[in-house]
Amino acid sequence: MLKVVSGVWALLIGIVFIMLGNGLHFTLIGVRGDIEGFSATELAIVTSGYFVGFLSGAHYAPKLIRRVGHVRVFAALGSFMSAGLIAFPLLAEPWAWTVLRVLVGFSMSGIYVTAESWLNDSATNETRGKVLSAYMIAQTLGIIGAQGLLTLGDTAGATLFIGASILVSVSFGPILLSVSPVPAAAITRSMPLRELFTGSPLATVGIFLLGSIYATQTGMGAVFGTQIGMTTEQIALFIAMMFGGALVLQYPIGWLSDRIDRRQVIFGAAALGAGFCVAGWMLGGALWPLMAAAFLTGGVTTPLYALMLAYANDALPVEDMPAASGGLVLTFGIGAILGPLATGWAMQHVGPSAFWLVLSVTFGAVALYALYRMTQRAAVPVAETESYLGVLPTASPLAVEAAGAWSAEQAEDEAQG
Q1: Quick one: pLDDT band at residue 125, thresholds 50, 70, 90?
Q2: Residues 402/128, Cβ–Cβ less than 8 Å
Q3: What CA–CA distance (Å, rounded) separates 134 from 132?
Q4: Which one of 2, 89, 115, 335 is least enclosed by Cβ atoms within 10 Å?
Q5: Rounded to 10 degrees, what is the CA torsion of 366, 50, 94, 233?
Q6: Per-residue model confidence as pLDDT tens digits over 286-334
């Protein structure tokens, strides 16, 4: 593993710094928005703005790369993102923050596409799985570390926004000074959603619902914390626990999914997620039980996303995966836009507890649909399934496609061996 990482260390270090800046601003928005007097609905719109930009970036970034190259796109989007982060305290209005979040989301998505194309190009068939795993760990550690940074400054001032901007700006140094340009990213036709649904209904519906869950957790978690009276330190820990759970539970859930019917694992993980959310709702404001609920609900969300991708690999021919990856990212993005809007509306009218209630209903919908799909299609024999590989929900179509290709290669090697 160390030998593999040594070839992409600069990129991974840069990714950690980017995630420190992006993760810091993500939580800071919820906390600062409460200080500025934004309503839950307004903060939900601001949150959704990020995913509108993110989805647009996933579509347009490959075209920009093809026109001007990786280095220019990477540097330009990094500059836009850094400028956007530092502009938040200059105009504390919901409409302005929504526009800035669209800009930051677009830039972040393009950065992912560019970085992941470099990462994929540097990997071989033998090392791709380890490289993608190291990338996922670097991203998650960056987000967790960002929550600690939130406690180092005054959330009512501009310091933390400036810090996030500096972190993003610094991140490009090791990357641009050490990574050579690669051929422009190929633009793959996205599979139409109807065709994607026909090929894998569970993956399509499941990833749409998971988009809603992930965006609600990451975007509205801090809003929930402020509304129940958590301190900044407690909110930072609450968000960190969600991503910590994802880091810890990724492997055991993936290990299990390679050994039994994946739909059973999807059902079980989603049902547990719903149960943990109900527990979070019933616990009220009890601090450490809430932290446990955050750890467990966040812990099943990211593995569920990777499970859905692996299940789509099982259901679709290998040659369709490049097109399917774009369709799956689109499906996730639509869910991520709608989820915070529904949660913000519910929190505005019901109260902070609606955060857990919306999540529990969405997890429950995933579980029930998985249970229904088990009655509609025979299980794929375990020996014929693709290997599981952890992929974060924020991955670009390029990383999703690379993970799918690796899974198919692993399954073929095991069949031949």
Answers
A1: low
A2: yes
A3: 5
A4: 2
A5: 80
A6: 889 999 999 999 999 998 988 888 888 777 776 677 677 778 888 999 9
